[in-house]
Structures are given as structure tokens and as C-alpha cells.
Amino acid sequence: MKNFNPADNIQDLQCFGEFGGVNPSISDSSTYTFLSAKTMFDTFEGNMEGCYLYSRHSSPSNLYLDKALAAMEGTETANVSASGMGAITPTLLQLCGTGDHIVSSRTIYGGTYAFLKNFTPRLGIKTTFVDITKLAVVEAAITAETKVLYCETVSNPLLEVADIEGLSKIAKRHNLTLVVDNTFSPLSVSPARLGADIVIHSLTKYINGSSDTVGGVTCASREFIDSLKNVNSGASMLLGPTMDSLRSASVMKNLRTLHIRMKQHSHNAMYLAQRFEKDGLKTVYPGLESHPSHEIYKTMINPEYGFGGMITLDVGTLAKANELMELMQSKNLGYLAVSLGFYKTLFSAPGTSTSSEIPLEEQIEMGLTDGLIRFSIGLDNDIERTYQMMKACMMDLNILLS
Ligand code: PLP
Known about the structure:
Elements: H1 6-11, H2 37-44, H3 60-73, E1 77-81, H4 85-95, E2 101-105, H5 110-119, E3 126-130, H6 135-140, E4 146-152, H7 164-173, E5 177-181, E6 198-202, E7 216-220, H8 222-229, H9 235-239, H10 245-255, H11 258-278, E8 282-284, H12 294-300, E9 310-314, H13 318-330, E10 335-336, E11 346-348, H14 360-365, E12 372-376, H15 383-396
Bound molecules: pyridoxal-5'-phosphate.
Protein name: Methionine-gamma-lyase
Pfam families: Cys_Met_Meta_PP
Family: Belongs to the trans-sulfuration enzymes family.
């Protein structure tokens, strides 16, 4: 990981606006004029670098954000989209067609799971879901039709860690494309540096960080991104999940503080995970030595950004989980809400919310228990105060006894 710091790569970019503005100008146009018809034709053919055609294809504002996110992930280029799903679905549809097969981690965001389980079979694309932490199981699931290996660096919601280097070796051996959703671990992990071919984010979460928009990005080679945007055959161009220029300009501004926020999210999450584990609660956090992939995750991260802001606590039953979340919200400790990466702590019971697309028996098999609460730990200034207040809620409900 020498000489690669994703936050420095963002910091080093300079893009000025018209009239010398310190922020790039926002391109508030859906279409662009050409001085000659020939240039317009060449742009359609994809042969005119620096010319803009139509904002569903690309716009100057989106290209600034593409550039910054590609710099962060260390890929040649990137393509932003209107949501995380708007990045995931065209990427997979660009890579796979009828008859093709995907091997995917079974613990992934519920929407992605539903897309692979219920939607892509309609197009003749099949997926085998596996325990991504068992490399031999992953390799055994590969068939002659497999095109893609899909996982999340840190999985939603169980916080399982994918050994990206190990998976990349398997992908190379079988000529597959390794697609990694890095939404839970921006800056902390740089999957492309570990061998991933394509890195995806839901920008909705940490990267934007203010829970005011949805957004997504696919970071990859220029060849792949050009194929996604191809006017005749590109899944992004033709399905149209384009981010609006005004929004990409605002995401870009938030991206600049990501490194500071990630450090604080990680610091706070580590603090609470250590305390609650010591108190005897079933706590899952990749920064704890008790996490099954702690050792490997330690080797994967850019250490200054820590182990991330996501924790799960198992409080026994769904009824207790619901009571606790309602009580914590009433004490203003956070919000009972899905999503993550906000300044305020967010909590939800994934079995009945973000992972409810996963059938109950499969939830049980993967260890997604009823009493599990997923926390996205916020940017609280005094985390000891937060800990004491959360602990008091748990004692009120007899989840903790002392
Ligand atoms: N990937 C992960 C890991 C997620 O948690 C989510 C949403 O929760 C998504 C992708 C989808 O992103 P979006 O909601 O921006 O479409």
C-alpha cells in the first residue's frame, strides 16, 4: 500500500470554476452545442475527448466527481450514477447476458440480493450465493458459465470481511471479473489495490455523508467505463441512471471532508464496540480481536482510517431490539432509520428492514438473528458520554444488568 493514500489523491486534484472560482462551475445543461456537425458526429462515435453531447452520457460536473472518485480508488476512471443500485445494476448487466452465471457473497445489501435472486433470472442470468469468507467454497461454485465474482468488502449487515486479494487470485485463475462494493469502507480499504477489477460505492452513505441524497459510482478501467457509456450498447447510457449535475457538485464538496469523518466514525465505533463487548453484549466489529476476520482485515486497511463506523449488537429478541431503538431515539442518541454514514448515529434491525428481501430461512442460515441491531455510529464529539447514555438505556430494558 506504499505511496498510495486515497485521501491525498483527492486532495491533490485541482479543478477551478469559470472566473477562477475555487469550486468547479456546475454544468446546468442537458445538451451541448457544437460548432461543426462533424464534431457532433465524432462525439457520438465516442471519438472526441473533451466534448460533451448530452448529460445522460456525461457532463462536466459529473466528470469532476468521476475523477475524484477514481483518484480515491486508484482506478483509471469512474462513472457516477443516481444511486448505488444505479451503479450496481448496469455494471452487472454490462458484464453478464443470458446464460451467464455470477458467484456472489450471500451476505450483501438486500437490494443487491433481490436483484440477483429475483430480477436477473428473468434475463437468464443465474447467481450462486456462497459464504464469501470460505475461498474453497467460492472456487467450487464457479462453473464454465461464470463471468463475475461479486462481494462487499465489509458486508451489509453482518460485517463479514471479504479477502479481496484471495478472491482476486481466484478471479484471475478463472478469468472472472471481481466486482467489489466498498460502500462500508471508503478510504479504509482500496479494493482495486488489492486486485478488484471494479469498485462500486453507494455514495448515499459515507462518501456524501449528509443523508440528503442517493448516489452511486462505478470505478473501473477506461475500457469498462466507456463500454457502460457506449451510446449503442452501454447499460448506463441506455438504462439512464444518471446523476444530476447539481447533485454531483454537492457530493463533490462533501467528499472533501471524508477523511476527517471516517477517522471519527472509526474512532467512535471502536470505542463503543470495545465497551459493549466488555459489558458482555454480543458485539460484531472488524476492529475487535474477536471478529473472525480481524487479522486479515488488519492487513487490508489503510490504518489511519480505521476499521469503519459500523457495528452490530445482538440484544436477544426483535422485541428487545425494537424497544431499545425506540428508547435510544427518545434520548436523542440517534435515529431509528436505515442507511449509514450520517453525522448522527443510525440504527435499524436489518432482518425487518434493509435485509427483509432475504427469506427468513436464509437469514437464519447466514446468522442474521432477530435481535440484531445494525449501528452506523455517528460523529459524536464525546463518545464516552454517548456510551454512558446508551448503557443506561440497555440497563433500563434489562439488556445489561450492571
Ligand atoms: N451497497 C450497499 C452496501 C448498501 O448498503 C446500499 C444501500 O443501503 C446499496 C449498495 C444501495 O445504494 P443506494 O441506496 O444508494 O441505491
